[in-house]
Amino acid sequence: APHGSGKTTFLQQCATAFRAKGLRVGGVLAPSGGENGRRQLVLLQSSPQEPLALQLNDGRPGDGGGSGSPSEPTGETVPEGAIQVGNFIFDESVFAKARAELRGLAGDERGSGPAPCDWVLVDEIGPLELNRGQGLEPAVGELLRAGARGELGPPQSRFLIIVRPSLRDTVVQTYGLDGTGCAAADDDGEGCLVADTIDGNR
Asked: Which parts of this chain are annotated as the region Disordered (predicted)?
């Protein structure tokens, strides 16, 4: 799905609907709500009403997914503490806050108590995470693998994840979402990670 097709808006609507039903929601969203449409980051559990400025430049249309060299020329100087992703420059300190948020969603009891959230929304997992181990990694991988091992409950947290179509199979295999890393489910289906992916592009 192309940029601007409403993926983040859909997740925002999901978060609102889940909360209206009394469900606990966590994770990260990346709306383009900053100055000149710059990407922001919203921490859904700790500060859902306070978007953080993630994107530091206006960028130019392009891949923006971290699949190219991190040193591709943009005509701009990449400041210390920033990550270059294609034509875009992101604030690493904001990614660090997102990783801390995701680590907190694993809870403290690791399978012996309820997870901190009923639903975890992730916007998004892309080449920056899969190819470079940056962005939301390693926290998002730790969280998803913990879920696949049945360590986030019971009841297990459920996930909605934005991922571009070309990376869907890689994401499923990398994080064990195909059941290969899943603990045996009980009669109620607990013990298995429940996740769905939404086509997207960072």
From this structure: 53-79
Query: Is residue 17, in this structure, part of any structural domain at all?
Result: yes
**Cα separation of 94 and 202, whole Å?**
16
E-only strand ranges, 30-134: 40-43, 47-53, 82-85, 88-91, 119-123
- Say what the pLDDT of residue 60 is: 64
Q: Which domain holds residue 31?
A: 7-54+92-199
Looking at residue 55, the DSSP 8-state letter turns out to be B
Q: How far is CA 34 from CA 12, 55, 74, 201, in A?
A: 16, 8, 20, 18
Q: Give the total number of structural domains in the chain.
A: 1
At residue 60, what are phi and psi to the nearest 5 degrees? -135, 155
d(CA 72, CA 79): 14
Do 76 and 88 form a contact (C-beta atoms < 8 A)? no
The reply to whether 127 falls in a domain is yes
Q: What is the pLDDT of residues 32-83, one digit of tens each?
A: 999 989 999 999 999 999 999 999 998 765 544 544 444 454 567 899 999 9
Position 73 in a domain: no
